[in-house]
Amino acid sequence: MAEMELVGVQLEMLSNSPMLMLRETGEKGRVLPVIIDVPEAQAIGRGIEGIRMARPMTHDLMIDILGELGAELKRVTVTELKDRTFYAELLVEIGAEERTISSRPSDAIALAIRSDVPIFAAEAVLDEAGQFLGEEPIEDLDDPDELLDDFKAFLDDISPEDFDG
Dihedral through CA 20, CA 90, CA 60, CA 144, nearest 10? Predict the structure, then answer.
C-alpha cells in the first residue's frame, strides 16, 4: 500500500467529467486519476474548502453518524481497478474492533477529507493506473497549481487505450 494525498478535482476535457487526482507521497510520486460524478466532486470540493451547509449533506451526515455510534474512520484505501472501475474501502474502528466497508473512491475521499484520515492506494492499482506526469518520478513538486498544469498537459497526450491492461 502507498500513502496518497489529494491533489484536487478538476474537469477532464475529453469526457467533460470531474476527475479526482491523488498523488503518491514519497519518492515515486505517481498520480492516480479517477473519473468521478459531479455530486461527489462537489462534495470533495466542499470538504477541501471546509464548507458546511446549514443542514448536513450526505458525507457530513455519515461522519456525524459514525461519531454518534462511537465509530471512527481510520483510513481509506483505493483497493482495486476492475473493468475500468475503481473500488475503495473504509477502515472503521468501533471500540476495539475494526471493520472494513466497501465504498466508491469518490465517497471514501469525501469522507477522508472531512475526517482528516490518511488515504492509501494498493500497489497493484498504482502499477496499473498510476501515471508519472513526465519521464521521471515527481519528487519535489509542492505547488498544486503546477501539478494540475502538468497533469493537464499530460491529459492532452493520453488516450483511453493507454489505460488498457
Answer: -30
Q: What domains are there in the chain, each with its CATH number?
A: 2-159 (3.10.690.10)
pTM of the predicted protein model? 0.77
Are the beta carbons of 57 and 150 closer than 8 angstroms? no
List strands edge to edge, sheet with 17-24: 31-35, 17-24, 2-12, 119-121, 71-82, 85-94, 97-103
For residue 136, which phi and psi values (nearest 5 degrees)? -115, 155
Task: Give the pLDDT score at 10.
Answer: 86
Ramachandran class of 5: left when φ > 0, alpha when ψ lies in -120 to 50, beta otherwise: beta
C-alpha triplet 72, 104, 149: angle, nearest 5°: 105
